[in-house]
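Good morning,

Attaching, inline, the backbone tokens for the sequence recovery test we're adding to the shared suite. The designed sequence is right after.
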């Protein structure tokens, strides 16, 4: 495996534009590990969520805060895709403008600040993963997506991590298990909840052993929503988001139902043929 690679021969935006597939790390498909928003004065240095036998906790750095929102999710898909396709731990992000182009996002002062904030938060957070298999609990502590970042000054002040080094364990796991994702998600699903639901259903589509799965709304709220949100409000929002997900996952249409207590997902084909290796992206 290469340890150093450069994207100088093609820009980051060209690299992403040429991809038939993107890749997402499995842990963000099983459990939605990042908050949608951070409310000023609320939150803390740890954010946790669980989904049945899987749970994820994210511990943030005091100086950079908790990763959150759509950009931290897009950035994680971006660095996973580059790392897997190039088979490298060292990734040259270039400029903030190049990252915005790669993520198909308009250039504006607001987005410049948001991208910079989220890559710094991701570069300094620690992720802890727990999975239960029968009577065993497997814990992975300090699952760092980014092991090291090399920052440079930006014209308007502050620093930008122009080059990041992925954790070897993170890349090795991604090369084995990363889930293929349609590139259209970057333009069609700009809501954190919509992207989280797309990733979860995409993952579940390959793991439904029977004709269906049935999940209680309380469990889904613990996985995707806020504890301060009523079950009725969460259920209504979740079902609205599903209709948006169908735009990039048409096979989902007609394959789910809901009642007051449960969400039922019928067996359905994956949006992307599973088994595609990152090198095929």
């Amino acid at each position: 495996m290469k340890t150093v690679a450069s994207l100088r021969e093609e820009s980051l935006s060209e690299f992403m534009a040429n991809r038939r597939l993107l890749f997402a790390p499995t842990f963000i498909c099983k459990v939605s590990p990042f908050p949608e928003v951070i409310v000023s004065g609320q939150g803390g240095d740890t954010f946790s969520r669980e989904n049945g036998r899987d749970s994820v906790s994210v511990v943030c750095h005091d100086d950079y805060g908790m990763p959150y929102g759509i950009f931290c999710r897009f950035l994680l898909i971006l660095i996973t895709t580059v790392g897997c396709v190039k088979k490298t731990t060292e990734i040259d992000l270039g400029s903030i403008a190049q990252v915005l182009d790669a993520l198909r996002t308009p250039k504006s002062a607001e987005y410049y600040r948001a991208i910079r904030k989220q890559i710094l938060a991701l570069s300094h957070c620690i992720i802890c993963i727990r999975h239960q298999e029968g009577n065993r609990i497997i814990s992975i502590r300090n699952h760092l997506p980014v092991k090291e970042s090399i920052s440079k000054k930006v014209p308007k002040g502050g620093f930008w991590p122009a080059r990041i080094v992925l954790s070897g364990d993170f890349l090795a796991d991604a090369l084995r298990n990363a889930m293929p994702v349609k590139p259209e998600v970057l333009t069609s699903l700009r809501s954190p909840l919509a992207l989280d639901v797309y990733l979860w259903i995409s993952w579940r589509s390959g793991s439904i052993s029977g004709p269906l799965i049935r999940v209680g709304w309380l469990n889904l709220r613990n996985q995707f929503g806020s504890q301060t949100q009523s079950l009725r409000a969460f259920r209504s929002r979740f079902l609205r988001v599903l209709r948006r997900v169908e735009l990039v996952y048409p096979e989902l249409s007609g394959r789910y139902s809901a009642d007051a207590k449960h969400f039922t997902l019928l067996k359905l084909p994956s949006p992307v043929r599973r088994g595609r290796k990152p090198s095929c992206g």
